[in-house]
């Protein structure tokens, strides 16, 4: 070692310093390569729907010490761009009717203490080359989970009844659930009001022209459009039905993380609630 340093005309300390720098450089490059591989996996696992903020959260859950800035930089360098869509809106609320209007009981109180206490619902437009489609969705305010939905080619009372029936069959909520919607003629129809009464649900409706009163379901439909609908070309209604099922049931409910849920998915957040509730019950009433 001394002879080699003498021949090369470098000091021993300089040689060891360079060796350490080389080792650090190799370690850095290996970490960078591993980090990019993980970013790429999360990006494609989410069907290219996640940007750097969500991917950074997922990396940190795995134990990575990484900044959103670095994740964004690596994504840009490797052309990993999340789906970006144009804004488009079709009016789906027909409030020009004389049907009875329920009071605004919810009154923008978007926090609740447990699942299946408050449901919010709405209709949105889905473009399809074979003909227009409409999606009726029912969202649980606690878990942000879509508990019922139906896709149809007409914006009728039957469409929203189908979504409500599916939600009720799936969750069997206790009496007194608060059901919030806009003032659309479908939600104020006699048939729909009878179904709410049958299920022992309490109706609440937004104020006229105030989209903020139903902000949570509006937010879901906005996400749905940006991440899915406007990034996909539906050629047939059958394709739209199949891919809508995949997005809502397998991606949105099971996998998509939400900032309001501590970056958990709706299904995982619901699972954690019932697990914690059962643990508390066991502590209060231990088995003999």
Beta percentage is 5-15%
Provide the residue-averaged pLDDT.
88
Radius of gyration from the CA trace? 26 Å
CATH homologous superfamily classification of the largest domain: Ribonuclease H-like superfamily/Ribonuclease H
Shape by Cα distribution:
elongated
Spell out the helices and strands N to C.
HHHHEEEHEHHEHHH
| Uncertain residue segments | none
The profile of the biggest β sheet is:
5 strands, mixed
* Broad structural category: alpha/beta
State the separation between the terminal residues, measured CA to CA.
73 Å
Main CATH class of the largest domain: Alpha Beta
Count, helices: 10
| Helix-residue proportion | 40-55%
Number of strands: 5
Number of structurally distinct domains: 2
Task: Assign the CATH topology of the largest domain.
Answer: Nucleotidyltransferase, domain 5
- Can you name the CATH architecture of the largest domain? 2-Layer Sandwich
Task: Please state how the strands of the largest beta sheet are arranged side by side.
Answer: 3-2-1-4-5
